[in-house]
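User: Structure tokens for this complex, please. No commentary.
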Amino acid sequence: MVSDYPNVVILVGGSGGVKLAHGLALALPPEKLTVVVNTGDDFWHYGLRICPDLDTLLYTLSGQVNREHGWGISGDTTVALNTLRTLGDDTWFTLGDRDLATHLRRTQLWHEGHTLTQIAGMLGAALGIESRILPMTDSPVATIVETAELGDLPFQTYFVRHRWQPTVRAVRYDGIEAARLSPELVAALQDANVIILGPSNPWLSIDPILAVPGMREAIRASRAHCIAVTPIVGGDAVKGPTARLMRDWGLALEPQTIADHYAGLIDGFVADQRDESTAPDGIAWLTADTMMTTDEDRLRVARVVLDWAADFSRAPRT
Amino acid sequence: MVSDYPNVVILVGGSGGVKLAHGLALALPPEKLTVVVNTGDDFWHYGLRICPDLDTLLYTLSGQVNREHGWGISGDTTVALNTLRTLGDDTWFTLGDRDLATHLRRTQLWHEGHTLTQIAGMLGAALGIESRILPMTDSPVATIVETAELGDLPFQTYFVRHRWQPTVRAVRYDGIEAARLSPELVAALQDANVIILGPSNPWLSIDPILAVPGMREAIRASRAHCIAVTPIVGGDAVKGPTARLMRDWGLALEPQTIADHYAGLIDGFVADQRDESTAPDGIAWLTADTMMTTDEDRLRVARVVLDWAADFSRAPRT
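Assistant:
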């Protein structure tokens, strides 16, 4: 029965969170899933509006993603990029030819006055995605990484151009004070039975979403239980700069660190079975195999989280 | 001896004028040739700054142009464009993947604060073009075609989207009052020995250039003789809407009509031998085979014009 499925909202960045969103899309009827995506990485490049996390989500949910990279489109060509190099451009940000079409279409719609929420909906529909994809806000927000070696860097400059090698002193989200939750996102949070903080980087991917004014309050005010899934597996990050950041900041590379980071917001935490862990006070704890390589892995982890959430919901939220 | 070559400035749009510019590039040492290109067709599309006439010139002078079309790059692919169509875009303006690189690079340089004159120089250098290419102005100017059926249309909407089929009532150049000649263009006109109005559409391609404030005065003040080459061959236009415009406006489809249009500015006019023609008062007249299909044709026509200009320059300008 469709009515047995909860309304699920998951917050994601670009890598682990998207894989779990994919698992949820495989597990749930599409109308039951809303994916809220970080837009702090978005930037203007060659005059195009590029939304890396949104695009990884679009390409993954539509089955187009290049699984080897975890971003971009499988089998894409780079004719434009190769030509750009001959024109003297340093082409530090890879744009495939099919991928370029996404940026061109989005930028055209942007200049026509559509919100990013509307654009994400149009792109998702064109790619046959039936689950709802919502940017964390339609307001412009830019994640700025304050580095020891190179000063303030826009996120993609830090992440792609410098391959997340500079030492991060702090992270801020420019424009966040003026950002607003979209009406669509407010409604999705109100209707949610389960809210999941995906296994993406807490500081770089999930925190920008949580920093949109009203977001934490909306999650707390929701009837939904909030569950985080660990981005730490076997004492390391599966991908990207999470472990490097935690080491630089003197944080223990264990799931409790992530749970503590989300304390006050989450009701439960899913740690990986590879890590020894102890539940912190006040947070329900589950250990499971959270690695998500194949579609079967993703579906399995999604079901673990959904089943656990169903147990939660038998008791009213405290 | 290099010093035997005159300093030549040619004004061009996107088709016939570019072919003659190509012939001149084959005939002259590169430092002797300056090509001034119409920018009234330039527009924003998908967030990119697209300069159709400049690009046809760049691709032609670098030997890359698709000769069948007369625009775009030979052998270019359309992966991005085909994908755009699947995303719901109507893709009325063709952008090849290699061609896209030009627009991406130009737009990036534009947003970095370079003038279009600087950008044209950088793109030309990257493509190995040694002759100087100068936009008619660095100010934004938009050719607007006032049509009977569809009202005011930006040039590319008229020309490409509607395949120049609407009836043209008038043409105007939005922003022209505020446009300025670049210092580079002022210097080129001052140094010129010969100024050629290329065989492009007078109203749509050459007139926008002549309408930049100070352009006509600079041509008249120059020591150079000014020669126009006919876009009418055999009682018709070689390509594009010139003949259609002239018929709609009740103008005779003969070279004299074009010469009359440029009266007061030109010293000489090169008509095609296929047309019967009579020199108007006060304009020197030459007939020749002006069709330019092959490189040899283009070189031949360039030499006809240069040889005639050399005869002119034996007498001081009146």
